[in-house]
Amino acid sequence: MANVAKRQFDAVIVGAGGAGMRAALQLSEAGLKTAVLSKVFPTRSHTVAAQGGISASLGNVQEDKWEWHMYDTVKGSDWLGDQDAIEFMCKTAPEAVIELEHFGMPFDRVESGRIYQRPFGGHTANFGEKPVQRACAAADRTGHALLHTLYQRNVRANTQFFVEWMALDLIRDADGDVVGVTALEMETGEVYVLHAKAVLFATGGAGRIYAASTNAFINTGDGLGMCARAGIPLEDMEFWQFHPTGVAGAGVLITEGVRGEGGILLNGNGERFMERYAPTLKDLAPRDFVSRCMALEVLEGRGAGKNKDHVLLKLDHLGPEVINHRLPSIREIAIKFAGVDPIKEPIPVIPTTHYQMGGIPTNYLGEVMVPKGDNPEVRVNGFYAAGECACASVHGANRLGTNSLLDLVVFGKSAGDSMIDFIKRERPVHKPLPENAADYSLSRIARLENQTGGEEVNDVRSAMQKTIQLRAGVFRNSENMALGVKEIAEVAERAKRTQIKDKSKVWNTARIEALELDNLIEAAVATMIAADARKESRGAHSHDDFQKRDDDNWMKHSLFFSHDRHLDYKPVHTKPLTVDYIPPKERTF
Amino acid sequence: MKMQFKIYRYNPDVDAKPYMQDCEVELEPTDKKLLDALVRLKVVDDTLSFRRSCREGVCGSDAMNINGKNGLACVTDVAGLKQPVEIRPLPGLPVIRDLIVDMTQFFKQYNSIKPYVINDTPPPSHERLQSPKDREELDGLYECILCACCSTSCPSFWWNPDKFVGPAGLLAAYRFIADTRDTATNERLDNLEDPYRLFRCHSIMNCVDVCPKHLNPTKAIGKIKELMVKRIA
Ligand SMILES: Cc1cc2nc3c(=O)[nH]c(=O)nc-3n(C[C@H](O)[C@H](O)[C@H](O)COP(=O)(O)OP(=O)(O)OC[C@H]3O[C@@H](n4cnc5c(N)ncnc54)[C@H](O)[C@@H]3O)c2cc1C
Ligand code: SF4
Ligand code: SF4
Ligand code: FES
């Protein structure tokens, strides 16, 4: 480790999206020496793309209660969510959102001067009775407003950002405690060791394992890859949300807020087909359900367009006033990416990969928990995770819209608090770094540098994306998934021999993409293996050969271990913090 | 479809000085935006470096100079671009490599206007109330994605990037002045009362012309100037 520079901090946060920046604020304001790493300038993190809203039972428009929000979230999760974490999130939601407002977030308003709220899929009043307006919104730019506000607040708090630094690997010592990360400074190409008392991962999702996704180029699951390589299991990776309304062909998202404002889905015959499948919630049923209905319409020959391969999202009946005021960016996206002006014409849409429900296993305090001996949940000292890369698990088998932005700020804050507490009480001084802390990362880079006769990064990535798209889609079956497991293992072998032509140090994006691919592959293998193993249908995991949810055998979280690719399972938390357990029942809408 | 490019190349590790590279790429029918074309070019030549992330015009990563005008590659249609498409890094900022510029100065100016709501009264237990009409004052201001298309097309910013706040920073300054929840208008005007920070803007409007989010920094700057005048009177 002779020529690797070292830097020391109380805390290192990897990721400057909503989750990372909410945590950073907590640590900076507590006066801890904190480094926040991001592959991109903070406001370029993909939280910026969130459109529709952030949920909280403020009741600004209609009566609402956090207990109803909790019920919807449990039901939305198809009873795979941990009920203690869900209670914590829904109960904390109102204060978390009010806090954002106090930070300066430019929410839309209702006449009383309070925050504007719109309906969203799966959010209901009185335990499923009728839709409720719970999504707090800043037009259709809620993520942008939230991310910029958190960045601004961090400017005020003097947070130290390491912009365009890519974390490469987690550093664990002989006890398994986390004591830092290695990271690559993109501008210089130098590798550093960042030594810390506590490390938080807030690296976002890995949506780019699919060929078609609403995710940004940078959403490559780096946190998952780093964990997998460091022996930390990945939880519930079989559960991927397909958002009903991605622009057909382009993948760019059209928010559910469009349907919240009154937009409807039509099949090729002009029929509002959701009325048939979900008589109560109709177009506002949860995403897993709506996506399946759409896919069925297309499969059964009722798709729209020349190839009958999509359905239509109609909103012209809302009128130019509502569209321009509440959904201005949607109009722009439709014009730019679908070539239609929604004031006049419907938007062609298809279910598109959107969100990773699984991730790094944590509890509701943001602490990373792994099995040890007979205990399924033992804390990894010094290690925390929050946001889309983490699995708390509040979203279970299917996330409700607007619950992710909420997850970011609620668990970003609680993880920050847990870290402060840990540093003060348990880790007042740094634990020493292991002897060879950077060796592993350096060897990965050296391998890439010296590879000859290898594979093109782009070819391997395309092969991975094609496999996952084909084998782990909206509808799954045993035969297809077994093939997927075999194919993805082959792709993973190829990924060990990737090669780049660019050997320079300064801003070498070829190297960055190759390193990202290592992370994508970990997420893809975990997804395929966990999906193939789950012999039931639950939430977003829809299995043709096992069409029913099987609570007796499968109401449990999967844990994927990368080193030997085995799966383990752990029970769902059925005990909320204060209220009664919500027992499973059939999901109808 | 084949497409011709002329791209600014500079890699400090190997090039003594920057040069313009002629190249050609075969586009697929799905390659509709300039960013798609650049990504395809990069498959052929992995040394071509540029920033990108969201590919939908909200993150502000891929601002560049396209046929002489600043814009985002991901929302620029390839159809209709004059060929060879001439692509350069944003003007006026130091080039690190190829299309990647050093944005330090740009963000420094943004930070200098104190880009956060200042209000020292203790917050209520609920929202700080704001009428829909007052909230509308923020429309056209808060949507900025910090892409720097505007500031790097502004001659006043080219000459004085260290002293002139520039259109993006001034738009943000007005965003907070216009917010009824912010109580620091006076302090903010003091911060800009300077021959350079605000008054270097000569209303040339280049900034308005290039903003991919259709924002109007010139108008915001005009409003700040008006407030300055009012304050003296
Ligand atoms: C188009 C779209 C619309 C959405 N709309 C909504 C909505 O309306 N409501 C809602 O609740 N949810 C919505 N979601 C989901 C939600 O936006 C995301 O789940 C959430 O923003 C993720 O936030 P995050 O902080 O976990 O990660 P991100 O915002 O993705 O940030 C990840 C951060 O990690 C950094 N990073 C990653 N890897 C590394 C590394 N190796 N080294 C250093 N830094 C690294 C990145 O640079 C970035 O700063 C939407 C998602 C999409 C894609
Ligand atoms: S109007 Fe002012 S800020 Fe805009 S380009 Fe001209 S001088 Fe620059
Ligand atoms: S004002 Fe427009 S051009 Fe300038 S940084 Fe903001 S979004 Fe970009
Ligand atoms: S890639 Fe985000 S704005 Fe173009």
From TrEMBL, chain A:
The keyword Flavoprotein applies. Residues 461-588 form the Fumarate reductase/succinate dehydrogenase flavoprotein-like C-terminal domain. Keywords: Cell inner membrane, Cell membrane, Electron transport, FAD, Flavoprotein, Membrane, Oxidoreductase, Transport, Tricarboxylic acid cycle. Its main location: membrane. Pathway: Carbohydrate metabolism; tricarboxylic acid cycle; fumarate from succinate (bacterial route): step 1/1. InterPro entries: FAD-dep_OxRdtase_2_FAD-bd, FAD/NAD-bd_sf, FRD_SDH_FAD_BS, Fum_R/Succ_DH_flav-like_C_sf, Fum_Rdtase/Succ_DH_flav-like_C, SdhA/FrdA/AprA, Succ_DH/fumarate_Rdtase_cat_sf, Succ_DH_flav_su_fwd. It catalyses: a quinone + succinate = fumarate + a quinol. Belongs to the FAD-dependent oxidoreductase 2 family. FRD/SDH subfamily. NCBIfam families: sdhA_forward, sdhA_frdA_Gneg. This is Succinate dehydrogenase flavoprotein subunit. It comes from Chitinimonas prasina. The lineage of its organism: Bacteria, Pseudomonadati, Pseudomonadota, Betaproteobacteria, Neisseriales.
Automatic annotation (TrEMBL), chain B:
Residues 12-93 form the 2Fe-2S ferredoxin-type domain. Its EC number is 1.3.5.1. It is an enzyme of class 1 (oxidoreductase). It catalyses: a quinone + succinate = fumarate + a quinol. Binds 1 [4Fe-4S] cluster. This is Succinate dehydrogenase iron-sulfur subunit. It comes from Chitinimonas viridis. One of its GO terms (molecular function) is succinate dehydrogenase (quinone) activity. Its cofactor is [4Fe-4S] cluster; [2Fe-2S] cluster; [3Fe-4S] cluster.
